[in-house]
Amino acid sequence: MKVEDFENEVFKELEDIPGVGPATAEKLRKAGILTPRQLALYGLDELLMYVDVDDYSRINRALMRVRRAFRPQKVLRASEYASMRSELPRLTTGVKSIDQLLEGGLEPRCIYEVVGEYGTGKSQLCFQLSTTVQLTVNRGGVGGKAFYIDTEGTFSESRIAKIGERFNIEDPLSGVLVFQPMNVDEQIDCIRTILPKYIEEEGVKLAVVDSLISHVRAEYRGREMLVARQQTLNYMLNFLLRVAMMYNVYVIVTNHVVAKPVAGGGVTAAGGHVVAHGTTHRLFMAPQHSKRQGILVRRMLVEDSPYLQRGSSATFGISEKGLVDVL
User: Fold this and answer.
1) Which CATH number is 83-324's, of 3.40.50.300, 3.20.20.70, 2.30.42.10, 3.30.450.20?
2) What is the DSSP string of 114-143?
3) Average pLDDT taken over every residue of the chain
4) What is the pLDDT of residue 167?
């Protein structure tokens, strides 16, 4: 068969893939890989970590065919790439100043990292996005659900309900799926197997990890575990990016800060270079230590981005009904 023939193949079940028989399909399902599209997320060496197979060449050919079926290999001219990106729907944050800072809201197929000290509004932004994603396209949403990975136990259904009232969403809680991993292993399994399942079955359009690094910092202690910690962070971010690109979904992760061990002090994002390279846009949330009409004032600053202007910022407030513009 020619390469272009592979791109026209349709696989509905794992057994439809040439080289994947009933026994192999059962092994894949036990590893949490339930559909051909989910299988296309994996590379050979990675797959062999989860599935015990004897014929490596056979499973490698199966991977090649399923990847070609779901992600045809296309080389785009830069003009075509720009046109493709411009057609992707943006997701509103519900705050005009932040949407303007982000050039229209969040874009899919990438990872937004929100960094800040406690109380600066990171989780509040995640709650609001989990609500606005449910809005119709003409209101700035995409008519989808949110999958919220809560690693710190800070998910607030009452905040979602209040924000939903503001946006006139009848039952906002039904549009948010929550998973609370107990440790790093559960967090990886959720990103790797549970998240893709719910994207396919429940119409999830937004993935939230709040926070990315909490379990990792707790379990990988000391400099002797630094390499393992960084590899774990890299794997989670890389898999999230694969999911974002495969399914055209929006991804946002929150991150802690650590003190800079230099004269003058200050704070920087936790996770080092791995997290900095693994996310697409890094946004810093900073307190303004002021109130306007009883609303806490905060500032979002672009620290790193492929196209957003570094150092540009937006001022917003945290109110009873979520994040709002402030005058």
Assistant:
1) 3.40.50.300
2) EEE-TTSSHHHHHHHHHHHTTS-GGGT--S
3) 95
4) 98
**CA dist list (Å): 77 to 74, 83, 326:** 10, 10, 41
Q: pLDDT, tens digit, for every residue of 158-210?
A: 999 999 999 999 999 999 999 999 999 999 999 999 999 999 999 999 999 99
- The domains of the chain are located at 3-70, 83-324
The mean pLDDT value for 67-94 works out to 95
Helix pair 226-247, 195-202: axis angle to 10 deg? 10
Bond into 211 cis (ω within 30): yes
Instruction: For residue 280, give both structure tokens.
Output: 């697409």
**CATH code of the region 3-70:** 1.10.150.20
What pLDDT shows up at residue 155? 98
User: Are the CB atoms for 91 and 106 separated by under 8 Å?
Assistant: yes
Question: Using CA atoms, how far apart are residues 315 and 324, in angstroms rounded to an integer?
Answer: 9
Residue-by-residue DSSP string for 209-257: EE-SSHHHHHHS-SGGGHHHHHHHHHHHHHHHHHHHHHHT-EEEEEE-E
Number of neighbouring beta carbons within 10 Å of residue 122: 24
